Amino acid sequence: MKKLFVFLLIVSTYYGYAQGSKNIFSKDPIINLENFQKSRIYYGFYLGFNAYDFKIDYKTETPDILVKKTTGFNVGIVADLKLHEYFNLRFEPGLYYTKRDLYYPSNPDFVKSSDAIREVNSTYIHFPLLLKFSSLRTGNIRPYLVGGLSATLNLSSNAKLEDDNLQQRFRVKAWSPNYELGFGIDLFSEYFIFSPSIRGVFGINDELIRDKDPNSPWTGNIESLKSRAIFINFTFH
Prior knowledge:
Layout: H1 2-17, H2 21-25, E1 41-58, E2 66-69, E3 71-82, E4 87-91, E5 94-103, E6 117-134, E7 141-154, E8 175-188, E9 193-203, E10 222-236
């Protein structure tokens, strides 16, 4: 599925730029979509990838819990409100899927080898409200910076379950706030705007729901557990 997704993305991008690439990158380009971003409101959609991690702080110094990351995928829509020539307010709700494996250091309380591993599958609905600062447009290229706050709903949090890690249930809070920082570039083709971007997302609050046993080998020594991630998105307007 990942290979198919990458293939479709490459094909669609190449098709869109096959006739317009010279206009974007040539020395004296024809100005494409000159009035598009003068609109008060415009919309788009995005596809992309993510790499989620956990930032873990401990109560006492012990061997770290290792986090194995995988590449997830993103899909969502964009609503853009023009505030000023260089400033836009963006709302980019989307669906994000990811998976992380936690590898705990050896512990005498672990009866089975599987006790030292916790799979954390997450399906997020992500609600970012971002401020976009664009530079002066040069031909058909316009770089930008973006930053703001977001709220994330984890549909796989297990927050409402009574079972904890003794029953193989790793639990986190359903909602978490974040702040986000990133940059990207608007490329104006003849028919649409293609905007690749990269963004860092950093959880603000502790997300962990602790086990009933305060001395649990899985959660007892964790002071805080916060998500952090890198998003690579390809936006089309």
